Structures are given as C-alpha cells and as structure tokens.
Amino acid sequence: MALERTFAIVKPDAVKAGHTGEILSAIEQGGMKIVGLKLTRLTPAICQGFYHEHVGKGFYQELENFMVEGPVVLMVLEGENAILRWRDLMGATNPANAAEGTLRKRFGASIGRNATHGSDKPESAKFEVSYFFNAFEQM
Fold it and tell me: Where do the domains of the chain lie?
C-alpha cells in the first residue's frame, strides 16, 4: 500500500447539522491522519475554480448555491491508500445507494446534499489539495 494524501470536505449540510466532530472522529478511527484543516465559507468564485469541470452543466448552479450556503470544513488527509479509504468511508455519492455505516448513509439527505466530498483519483487530489492549502498549511 502507498502512503498518499487526499482532499476532503465536510459540506454545509453536515456542518450545519453538527456532524463535523463525528466525521473527523470517523476519519481518525479509520486510520487516516488529518494533516490540514480549515473552517471557511466558499464564494461563487471559489466554487467556479474548484468545480471548473462542472461549470455550465445543468446541475452546476444548484451545486454552487449549496456549497456557498454555509461554512465548510476543508481537510487534507494522509494514510495508506487514503483516496480509496476516504471514498469507502464516505460511501456512494447518492446516500440512498450508500452502504450502511458510511458517512453519506448516516448524514447525507440526497445526491446533492450528501455531507462530504473526496478526491476521486491522485490527479484530482493533487489539484484539490493545492487549490485550498499551501505548503505551510499542511503538516
């Protein structure tokens, strides 16, 4: 297994509902280390840069509206096969299809309000981490 870093977000719905602590605990209990952490609010411009591949798609405006509606927790996670492990812990994008015990099954309400985000591959993780964290903000 390879030691790697991935990017994660606790989305506005989960922050508002008070699930941040449970999600952070699940990450640590899952054997990953949180090496970067911030609480912030995204703006439309930040969303457009982050979700650049989705701008102009039919679902984009709903996604942006959701992501700017409240604070989010941004994280850099590190561990053996962190990308896959974080994705497994989150569960399927649609909470209705997520396995029991996964974060999206526990805290997500719909495919659009699904509590968490995680990088899907190493190239995405590299972009997403560097989009929100500089080298001095990661341990």
Answer: 3-137
**What is the reported pTM?**
0.95
- 102 half-sphere exposure, CB direction, 13 A CA radius: 24
**Which architecture, in CATH terms, is 3-137?**
2-Layer Sandwich (3.30)
117 catalytically annotated: yes
* pLDDT over 80 (residue 2): no
Which tokens belong to 79? 């561990």
What is the Cα–Cα distance from 68 to 59, expressed in whole angstroms?
15
The region that residue 58 occupies, defined by phi over 0 for left and psi between -120 and 50 for alpha, beta otherwise, is alpha
pLDDT single digits (tens) 32-88: 999 999 999 999 999 999 999 999 999 999 999 999 999 999 999 999 999 999 999
**Which own/partner contact pairs does 121-130 have at CB distance under 8 Å and 24+ positions apart?**
121/83, 122/4, 122/83, 124/7, 125/4, 125/5, 125/6, 125/7, 125/83, 128/7, 128/50, 129/5, 129/6, 129/7, 129/36, 129/76
Q: Which of 19, 52, 54, 117 is catalytic?
A: 117
